[in-house]
Design a protein that fits this description.
The structure is a single chain. The chain is an alpha+beta fold and 399 residues long. It has 3 domains: 3-206, Alpha-Beta Complex (Spore Coat Polysaccharide Biosynthesis Protein SpsA, Chain A); 233-285; 294-391, Jelly Rolls. The protein contains 11 helices and 17 strands. Strands 1, 2, 3, 4, 5, 6, 7, 8 and 9 form a 9-stranded mixed sheet that branches. A 4-stranded antiparallel sheet has the order 10-17-12-15, with no helix packed on it. Strands 11-16-13-14 form a 4-stranded antiparallel sheet. Helix 2 links the parallel strand 2 (37-43) and strand 3. Helix 9 (214-228) runs antiparallel to helix 10 (235-256) and helix 10 (235-256) packs antiparallel against helix 11.
């Protein structure tokens, strides 16, 4: 395909004193097999020799070095300058993997309803060695993104440029959670597509922003959650709070009991054991929908606005102890529908109330009949939720 027929992709790198890593970042962008890339680096006035590292690539990118208000300001300037209809940003210590841009463009072209796409990635160390897969990545789930965790690796995200005309740009007051905030805002207006391909890497080292944030980072996350979630204390509040303060408590234990290392280690292990237990409980059970598709007695879901006037739920009740299932679908106290289905696979059409047509829809599916599997699996299982989406017309159950 001719280059001029491919959409232009603009990649923006915000940078400040990252001469140690920025060469790898630049080369990961310029070595992509996609032939139509505009690359812009917005540097905040680095004094560590960044400009000298960038200089050999000056004919293949745009380098702007000037004082700014931080990472969000640099990204905003880059996106506003961008000529591409597709945009992404890559921090100056992170990298793209080969084929990332091509995969993103293909997914956006094949799915015009997507406002953005994301994929799989790795955690790497300061020397670029792979530590592990970015373990929390999963297929798109808007309720979980807004209320439980940021499971999307920002280094793999590509947006349609027009999305920012609707949702606005990055919040300049955010330092640690600006990527999660923009992903929430994107998801509450547009469908985001998951691409099952490894596309990027986040570099982890003690001086990295996420690693060094501590209590200040948690306070910012709490502020984002208050703005974006409909819950006063969503599960993410406790997950990120425990993750933050377990580290603070363990450091305090080490300081207080440095004279008795064995006791300090024992106490620290106890703190981590309790904290990780409750983090795991919140992350696994809070939505009521499990990774194998089984739904519990209460499932929380969220969809962006759509022209569709019906929510379509494809459900399966396998052969087993439950012969017929009944569900109630509600948003707060407002009941959308009451449905029942027998064993088999059915599509349920749930009318969306008119007062919710122009906003993201948060709703709950409640069920009274459940069974508990034998053995170690103690979950309350009700039915399999196969698919969720919108439709413009009512569909008869099973039709």
């Amino acid at each position: 395909m001719e280059t001029q027929t491919l959409p232009l992709v603009t990649v923006v790198t915000p940078s400040f004193n990252q001469a140690r890593f920025i060469k790898a970042t630049i080369e990961s962008v310029l070595s992509q097999d996609y032939p139509n890339i505009e690359y812009i680096i917005f540097d905040g006035g680095s004094t560590d020799g960044t400009s000298a590292v960038v200089a050999p690539y000056s004919d293949r990118l745009t380098f702007v070095s000037e004082k700014d208000r931080g990472q969000g300001d640099a990204i905003n300037k880059g996106f506003q300058m961008a000529g591409g209809s597709i945009v992404a940003y890559l921090n100056s210590d992170d990298i793209f993997l080969p084929g990332a841009v091509s995969a993103a463009v293909a997914a956006l072209q094949e799915n015009p309803e997507y406002g953005a796409v994301y994929g799989e990635g790795y955690r790497i160390d300061a020397d670029g060695n792979i530590i592990a897969r970015f373990e929390v990545t999963e297929v798109y789930n808007l309720w979980k993104l807004v209320n439980v965790s940021d499971y999307i690796l920002q280094q793999t995200v590509f947006w349609r440029r027009s999305v920012f005309d609707t949702i606005g740009y990055f919040d300049l007051d955010l330092h640690y959670g600006l990527d999660w905030d923009i992903l929430m805002r994107t998801g509450k207006r547009y469908v985001m597509g998951y691409v099952p391909q490894f596309m990027g890497c986040i570099r982890e080292y003690p001086q990295a922003k996420t690693s060094a944030g501590g209590a200040q980072r948690f306070r910012e996350i709490a502020r984002i959650l208050r703005a974006q979630s409909s819950y006063r204390y969503p599960p993410a509040y406790f997950i990120y709070g425990l993750d933050t303060y377990e580290k603070i408590v363990c450091r305090r234990i080490g300081s207080l009991f440095g004279w008795w290392p064995r006791l300090a280690r024992k106490l620290q292990r106890g703190v981590l054991r309790v904290s990780h237990h409750w983090i795991g409980q919140a992350a696994t059970h809070s939505q009521g929908l499990y990774s194998d598709g089984w739904a519990s007695t209460r499932v929380h879901l969220m969809l962006p606005p759509s022209d569709g006037r019906y929510i379509e739920l494809t459900v399966t009740l396998p052969s087993g102890p439950i012969e017929r299932q009944s569900v109630v679908v509600r948003s707060g106290r407002q009941v959308f529908a009451r449905e029942s289905f027998a064993q088999g696979t059915f599509t349920l059409s749930i009318p969306v109330p008119e007062n919710l047509w122009d906003a993201a829809v948060t709703f709950t599916i409640e069920t009274s009949r459940y069974f508990t599997p034998e053995g170690a699996d103690r979950r309350r299982l009700c039915y399999l939720l196969e698919k969720i989406g919108y439709s413009e017309r009512y569909q008869l159950p099973g039709g």
